[in-house]
TrEMBL record:
Family the entry assigns: Belongs to the peroxisomal membrane protein PXMP2/4 family.
Compartment(s) of residence: Membrane
Protein name: Mitochondrial inner membrane protein Mpv17
Highest classification ranks of the organism: Eukaryota, Metazoa, Ecdysozoa, Arthropoda, Hexapoda
Transmembrane segments: 53-73, 94-116
Amino acid sequence: MKIQPLKINRFRKTLLFRQALETGALMGTGDMVAQTLIERKKLERNYDPSRTLMFLLLGSFFVGPMLSAWYKCLYKLGHRDKDKSQTVILLQKVLLDQLVFAPSSLVVVLSILSLMQGGNLKSAKEEIKEKYVDILVKNWQVWPAIQMFNFYLVPLKYQVLLVQSLGLLWNTYLSWKIHN
């Protein structure tokens, strides 16, 4: 009987690890695409591998685990309220995601990237002041429809992967926007 909880716990840890690695790889790839295709940097000359590494590390150690935990919270929210319709629960999830999670996580991501690039809290604050509103508005133009699909049709264990796979384009935009 005690073997079953052990297997479930191992699966959860493996899933979180996999989601963290997938997110890091896709965020790093997004930066690489931004540098080579959008900014037209040549791999052998102007390409900045440390910038890609920063995105990879940010995705692996922060964004991936953060998304995994967030989606678990939203999933529990949907299973806690048995009296509400699926439509109401879906709208609640999307609204929480876009009005609570997106704005706050964007502040943290911009701050961490600024600090990883050698900045201090003052430069992080300037970075946020300069880029936050544009990125958040673009987020609201892109993500609500994706999240409706994600929360309604995609099983919890694949939600981070779906968002980060579609997020490859978002990460490309985010990297370009932050660095230009």
